[in-house]
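>> Question from a student workshop board

For tomorrow's exercise we were told to take the sequence and the ligand below, predict the bound structure, and bring the output to class. My setup keeps failing. Could a helper post the expected result so I can at least see what it should look like? The ligand is pyridoxal-5'-phosphate.
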Amino acid sequence: MVFLNGKFLPLEDAKIPVLDRGFIFGDGVYELVPVYARVPFRLDEHLARLERSLGETRIRNPYTRAQWRDVIFRLVDEQPFEDQGVYFQVTRGVAKRDHAFPKNVEPTVFMMSNPLVNPPREQVEKGAAAVSAQDYRWQRCDIKSISLIGNCLLRQLSAESDAAETLLFRDGKLTEASASNVFAVKRGVILSPEKDRRILPGITYDLIAELASANGMPIEFRDVAEAEVRAADELWVSSSSKEVLAIVELDGRRIGDGAPGPLFRRMYELYQDFKHKVMRAGKREAVSA
Ligand SMILES: Cc1ncc(COP(=O)(O)O)c(C=O)c1O
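>> Workshop helper replied:
Here is what the output should look like for this input. Compare the format with yours to find the bug.
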């Protein structure tokens, strides 16, 4: 079952008009919430980011926080599997094609949940390869927009090299990756760019920051030069589906000693422990690091 504009229905029956501005302009925003053992992970943080994306794009938020939570819980309960990735998007709605905002249209809300695919055990243990590219996306990467053509083109570069991600540099500095945030480790310090308009404020990025601080792991948010990334002792990518994953090869060159490093292993363990704490607490309770 999927959810479309207030109704639960089979995927095959979920249809939208071709003049939906999401289809015509990519004029919409989205979220992806991981769900472990039917417990949505950091749901309030995801809903807060959705509210922010809607506010920044001036798309009317059709639901209250409580209504969002209710439909998400219902959708999760409808699925026959435990670990899920709940995807939801809101577009500006259906209107005659014109760039300027239409008046009095209802936003379109679509929601589906698929089995959650985390990196396989072997990839967690051995690490993954990445390539790099210039970050030529727009200057509002802080908005979780459904207009993802830049991200798709950039991700395809790594797909064609059998690599897990494309790391991005803008003006000689690290921004993020095509679908994840990036952390570098140098001499025991975790480094990552500050949250500004160049990157998506990742929910996993925030959790890594919280876990690092709560467990005495030094972490700094500042500009990270391309040269620092290439000479890092460790590189990690983070996202709701990848969780935290070590990058051990960048553009065919080894990072550190070519295996996931000690800080990665510690953070991975903290992340898994935190997940279990959330699952034990159940779906209505917020848990902090
Ligand atoms: C461009 C980009 N950056 C970062 C992230 C990580 O965000 P989160 O940790 O909230 O999944 C994503 C997630 O899809 C993304 O698409």
